[in-house]
Structures are given as C-alpha cells and as structure tokens.
Amino acid sequence: MLNRLFDLTGKKAIITGGAQGLGYAMTAGLLESGVEVAVFDIQDKLAAIVSEFSGKSFIIHGIQGDVSNEQELGEMFAQAMKYLGKIDILVNNAGITRRHRADEFPIADWDDIFNVNLRAVFMLCKMVGNEMIKQGKGKIINIASMNSFLGGINNSAYASAKGGIALLTKSLASDWAGFGVNVNAIAPGYMDTELNKAIISDKKRYTSICQRIPAGKWGTPNDLIGPLLFLASESSNYVNGVVLPVDGGYLVR
Q1: Residue 198 has pLDDT above 90, yes or no
Q2: Three-state SS string across the chain, please?
Q3: Distance of alpha carbon 68 from alpha carbon 113, whole angstroms
Q4: Which residues sit opposite 243 in a β-bridge?
C-alpha cells in the first residue's frame, strides 16, 4: 500500500520556471519519479535542460514563453496538453524579484513582479483547475516563500505577491477540494540559489540569517523534492490548503 500511495509513475505534470534553481531540482525529482513533465520557462537554457533529461530517457517537453503574458500562457498550456494528453500535477514555481525600498519602488517593477508571481499563477491554476475538475482529481502545488509570512527587507512587492500566493492557495483549496483537486503550497526558506545571490554575497546578512536558522545552514534546491513528491502523490489526498514551510526551522524562532 505504501508503494501505491507514493507512486507517481505515468503521471503528467506542468512546472513553470523549471530551467534553473528550485525549479530545476523539482523537475528532476518529478522525472526521476516516473512523471512526464512539460516545463514552462522564458530562458534560452530551457533547450539544454530538455536535451539533458531526454538523454537520460526521461519524457520531458520544453515550452518557452512568458507566463505573465495571458495570450502566451494560454498557448503554452494548449501546447502542453497536446503533449501530455491530461494533467495530474501543476507546480507553479516561476518567480522574479527586484529589491527597492518601499518609498522608492518603481511601479513598473511592482507590476512585473505581480504579473509573474501572482497573476500568472492564478491564470494557470484556472486553466489547469478546469481540466482537473473534469477528471475529478489533481494536485496543484504553488511555490510560496518565507515572505508569505514575513515582510523581508526592501522586498515589498515580492512579499505582497507571495503573501497572495498563500491566500490564493487556501482559497482555491476551499473552492476545489470537493471536486477532488488538492491545492497546497511549499514555502521555501533561505535557499542557496541564483535568486538569492545578492543576500549570499552580503556576508554580514548571510551570517545573521544562518544564526537564526535552527538547522544552522541554508537549504538547497534538493530539499524541496521530498515535500513536492508528497504533495503530488496520493499520500496527500486529504491535505488541502496547506502552506508548508521548508526552512530549517527559521519560522520557529
């Protein structure tokens, strides 16, 4: 029974922002678990990622485009459905950040962050949700953040959007749990990725963050694979609207 609960063999998934960092690790985790994956990403490196995993006999489809553009996103989703035939798992991972003090925050940067980090997530959830409701089942995993709980520094747009992800996740779970669709989120703590290079290079701040984390270290992208596979599998069928911190204990202090 345990094998069945965690078995993802033959499942079909879409992951956004899957070409680097957290998304790359989660893409690898899904593929290695027997999932056929369509990866949405705007970056040119997507082709190399597809070639890498295809060379290992995994079934992966690269679909390049801008998730914040509603028309492009619709076309990307349609293409993914042609490849996959159905959709069992959605991982909304794509995200950007730009740091400014709140009183100096350019509205154009604010809009860009919200369009990628929140609006695109809702649009894709809506598209995928319609398919999952017809099927009577499906797993949606949104990628939240420590900034879903905390304000951060010079990060008002990102924190606001990630706070929105937490409540969007709960709202969708409330709407769709009765249709067999599980909507949950993972909130990564401080992760050693390209997105955090500015903080990592600030030795004073990096050290102070490490001192607050009970585990005593930053996380790595691979730390998200286990929680992802749990939320994507049948073992989480009665888990709805959870925002799961993967943070080394950061939030407990």
Answers
A1: no
A2: CHHHHHCCCCCEEEEECCCCHHHHHHHHHHHHCCCEEEEEECCCCHHHHHHHHHCCCCCEEEEECCCCCHHHHHHHHHHHHHHHCCCCEEEECCCCCCCECHHHCCHHHHHHHHHHHHHHHHHHHHHHHHHHHHHCCEEEEEECCHHHCCCCCCEHHHHHHHHHHHHHHHHHHHHHHHHCEEEEEEEECCECCHHHHHHHCCHHHHHHHHHHCCCCCCECHHHHHHHHHHHHCHHHCCCCCCEEEECCCHHHC
A3: 9
A4: 185
The catalytically annotated residue of 24, 83, 158, 206 is 158
Residue 139 has phi, psi (to 5 degrees) of -125, 120
Domains and CATH numbers, the chain: 2-246 (3.40.50.720)
Our answer to whether residue 190 is catalytic in this structure is: no
178 burial level (CB within 10 Å; 0-12, 13-18, 19+): exposed
pLDDT in tens, 96-108: 999 999 999 999 9
* 60-64 sheet: strands from edge to edge: 60-64, 36-41, 12-16, 89-92, 138-143, 181-188, 243-246
User: If you average pLDDT over residues 184-209, what whole number do you get?
Assistant: 90
Calculated CA dihedral for residues 62, 112, 21, 199, nearest 10 degrees: 170
> For residue 159, is pLDDT > 80?
yes
